Amino acid sequence: MTVQKDRPWLFRTYSGHSSAVETNKLFRTNLGRGQTGLSVAFDLPTQTGYDSDHVLSRGEVGKVGVPISHLGDMETLFNEIPLNKMNTSMTINAPAAWQLALYIATAERQGAARNELAGTTQNDIIKEYLSRGTYIFPPEPSLKLITDIAAFTYREIPKWNPMNVCSYHLQEAGATPEQELAYALATGIAVLDSLKASGQVPDEDFPRVVGRISFFVNAGIRFVTEICKMRAFTELWDEICRERYGVEEEKYRRFRYGVQVNSLGLTEQQPENNVYRILLEMLAVTLSKNARARAVQLPAWNEALGLPRPWDQQWSLRLQQIMAYETDLLEYGDLFDGSAEVTRKVEELKEGARDELARIDEMGGSIPAVETGYMKQKLVESNATRLAAIEAGEQTVVGVNKFAEGEDSPLTAGDGAILTVDPAAEAEQIERLKAWRDQRDSAKADAALEELKSAAKEGRNIMEPSIAAAHAGVTTGEWGTALREVFGEYRAPTGVGGASSAKHGDQLADVRTKVDALSDKMGRRVKMLVGKPGLDGHSNGAEQIAVRARDAGMEVVYEGIRLTPAQIVNAALEEGVHVIGLSILSGSHIPLVTEVLDRMKEAEINDIPLVVGGIIPPEDEEVLVKAGVSRIYTPKDYEINAIMADIANLVEETEAA
């Protein structure tokens, strides 16, 4: 008997590293192994609108994604991949209009029509202010750019999702399920309200645009709660579309989402356990048919250690294929309809989300809630509570704070079980960029940039001028610079200053006593600078260190993300700090830390101890210690109170020397 099965979700892996050439090879390999959609990871310079040779790009090129500086790079990235037959998701936000313009220009060079293209630009700038940090412009012009993309794509690329409202990084920043629901839905509301007010879409077409808004979510380890969260998402979004926007057609009210399951919960300790975590988290977004993901990408088991290899990504892809093709999951209706427990939890989550949505609405919506620091502060507080629970053993993490003793993992033997980016990749990308600038028609590029700036100043839709600029050979950094001149740049609130403290236990009281005594002895308060050099915007760890150092009685200097080594050293000089702490999660720790150390020596403050936190392989730890780093903390060092005690002892030793 033949059983009718539902069509499976899109199988994706989040991919990009080193160069467009290397990433293209990875794309074609993964597609050959059964992947059905592409998910592009861009490097940090690309995500923040800089060229590879910008001063802030040093050490960051090709590390967490692929560098795309111009049309030539985009054509190389999709070489031998027909874009009119592909569904491509691009994790890009502040420069989403630009990367979409490059994608469209590439498709046109391939001979494809715009209306044949299908895919998604993430394009959620609000969560960048709250958690991931790859924003460029202030909130209002950023919202205008999102509005322009939505208005353009519904006319020109009707199968394109102009925005993934992205709650993924909210959970990574510590959001509770209720906060994740509320902040994501508030973002969707902000975009649709802006689009309606812009007048770019006729009222009769507005439901179609609503129907193209998609979501990108996170699924954590508490998979029953996560199943209920996804059902709550679908019901709340349907309610918003009906009641706020008057959308009558059910298909335009559907909560369409893709997912990457939780990377926050992946552990450096006993990393083989991560395979089970990934499986359980995937169940949360596939078991409930009425709230099933449209696309799934899974992290690799070793992402807490570094960049996954092709084999690691293949392993995650095989999990999706086994679930879709070997099990009977797709043969049945929704397994949870009629469940009293599921219904109770869904209603509880919806009630909490509605309450938080009402608070945001009273403030005037998402933009004021970002600008006042309200949402960021709440996330910092939630994350502090989560970490304190892990430290206290109230929240179990197997292999970390319970059942920590075990055999060494054979999976991490040999080459370190991660992919490393060739240091030469950055220099080679810069050479290609210079060659591109030399061979293009500079007059055409300059004229295209002037038209781009005029469109921005006049409030016109930015997409057609951006596509013309792409064809004219304009670079990512030039596009970013042009719009920075018009819109300005932005530094989002850190949320640290106003965040209330979580419970930290007796150990922190001991650290406070130590810090107080040391401060009295020195005649002034122990002072710590927490710095984020380079373009890495993942600030959750730095924020928690800053909050805990404050709670331990230290005076803390934390100015947020995206600082040059020169700015960090200047701040250390001006503030007269006793210790400098750097947080780097992008893999760029060696070039950035060594530059900070060199500048400290030039400024004659190399007697100040420097500590570093991040995802740092053991072999790199040795390099950094030899260079002069006093302490290195990696994800295995989850007890922040112990880190604070160690830093206090380090300051005492330095003062006594």
UniProtKB/TrEMBL annotation:
Q: Which domain of life is it from?
A: Bacteria
Sorted UniProt keywords: Cobalamin, Cobalt, Isomerase, Metal-binding
The protein's required cofactor(s) are namely: adenosylcob(III)alamin
Boundaries of every B12-binding domain copy: 525-654
Give any GO molecular function from the UniProt entry: methylmalonyl-CoA mutase activity
| N-terminal signal peptide | none
- Family matches, as PANTHER family: COENZYME B12-DEPENDENT MUTASE, METHYLMALONYL-COA MUTASE, MITOCHONDRIAL-RELATED
Q: Which family does it belong to?
A: Belongs to the methylmalonyl-CoA mutase family.
Q: What is this protein called?
A: Protein MeaA
Organism whose genome encodes this protein: Candidatus Terasakiella magnetica
